[in-house]
Design brief:
The chain is built from 15 helices and 10 strands. The two termini are 15 Å apart. Helices cover 46% and strands 9% of the residues.
């Protein structure tokens, strides 16, 4: 009988802002008391998480004095030692404070852009001290409500300049740190620059140090745009840029719901988990999700355990899929290849062109071949529904 308990191998992590979310939304105030970072770490230790991630101001207030920050960090480090939790990733809040109302790196105000850089490098120093090897950047305010306000090409240049600056800082400091960019199409801004994972991948190639920068795709953010998240993850993996991943759940076309992983889009999340497990993804599996507003902190623990348990269940389902004789026979039939065109596997050559020019294809006959995708999908559903 398989176990669905979390394992250190899976590197399940949660942000301070996730299990520490008080349930406040645009239409209602908090329903849970605010926990301290230490209390959140202890909660995550109790539910079996591997690690904890944070924005700088999840950990210490934006206006904290150096002495206050030092004390908070001492307490936080002690909680990490007590629970054994790791800090694989850190990030900076560049969206909550009013100074970022027009963006951070892309703000029209040079003072804001400079402050954003200062805030990030200070946060990076602390993140590295806590053991983070990855730094995520989500530009929640990097966008517009009216394109009259900004030239998008100027904004992309400002973003590029900021990331080049940060990469040079990492190199000069000798930090073992990589950057991961997180895309989102909208909310809180009407239009956010670089709105999809694919857009981020294209942008990374324009940087001075593209090898230092990858992506942090999030289920909800791609689903908000009605896109196939597993396809975005596969593209990032193929490019060697899947540095981190944010797991949650989300209905297509809605506001950013951040539901418990696997709670609404079961088949989509199955193929995501199957992909990650099949290719051997070894990074953190980070949950950027929130418990329902209905929950107290016992319910928050249920939420956190549920995120991890669902991943482990889908992981087992992926193993079953790969070992199911009927499913694998169908896949073998679908991918049948007599090797007649293996001469194209090596790429372009004049000999390949010559052979291709002289080949005769039975266009009608080939088109009449049935592909049993209906049966394959039904078997997949039966496996997921537990009747296989």
């Amino acid at each position: 009988m398989p176990t669905y308990d979390p394992t250190a191998e899976q590197k399940f992590t949660f942000g301070l802002w996730t299990v520490g979310n008080t349930g406040r939304d645009p239409f209602g105030g908090p329903v849970r008391d605010q926990l301290s970072p230490v209390e959140i770490v202890r909660l995550l230790g109790e539910v079996g998480a591997y690690g904890v991630n944070y924005h700088d101001n999840d950990l210490y207030p934006i206006d904290a004095t150096p002495a206050e920050v030092d004390q908070i960090l001492r307490d936080f480090k002690q909680a990490l030692r007590d629970t054994g939790l790791k800090v694989p990733m850190a990030t900076t809040n560049l969206f909550t404070d009013p100074i970022f109302k027009d963006g951070a790196f892309t703000s029209n105000d040079a003072r804001v852009r400079a402050y954003a850089l200062q805030k990030v490098i200070r946060s990076m120093d602390i993140g590295v001290d806590l053991g983070a090897a990855l730094y995520v950047l989500w530009g929640g305010r990097e966008g517009t409500e009216t394109d009259a306000s900004k030239n998008p090409q100027d904004s992309l240049k400002r973003m590029r300049d900021a990331l080049n600056f940060l990469c040079e800082y990492i190199i000069e400091q000798g930090y073992d740190l990589r950057l991961a960019l997180e895309a989102k199409p909208n909310e809180p801004r009407s239009d956010i620059y670089l709105p999809t994972t694919g857009a981020m991948l294209g942008f990374i190639n324009t940087l001075d140090h593209p090898e230092m920068v990858g992506v942090n795709p999030e289920v909800a953010h791609e689903h908000m745009a009605g896109l196939n998240f597993a396809h975005a993850v596969a593209q990032a993996w193929d490019a060697g840029k899947l540095f981190h991943i944010d797991l949650n759940d989300q209905l297509f076309g809605r506001y950013d719901q951040d539901f418990r992983f696997g709670s609404v889009m079961i088949k989509q999340n199955f193929f995501l988990v199957k992909f990650l497990e099949d290719v051997g993804y070894s990074g953190s599996r980070h949950y950027d999700a929130h418990a329902y507003r209905t929950e107290d902190y016992e319910g928050v623990k249920d939420f956190a355990r549920g995120c991890m348990r669902t991943y482990m269940i889908l992981r087992e389902k992926a193993r079953q899929f790969n070992q199911d004789a009927e499913i694998q026979a169908l896949l073998q039939e679908i991918h049948a290849d007599d090797g007649a065109h293996s001469y194209l596997n090596g790429g372009y050559s004049s000999d390949a062109v010559s052979r291709l020019r002289n080949e005769t294809f039975d266009r009608v006959g080939i088109s009449q071949r049935g592909l049993p995708y209906e049966r394959l999908d039904q078997l997949t559903m039966e496996l997921l529904l537990g009747v296989r």
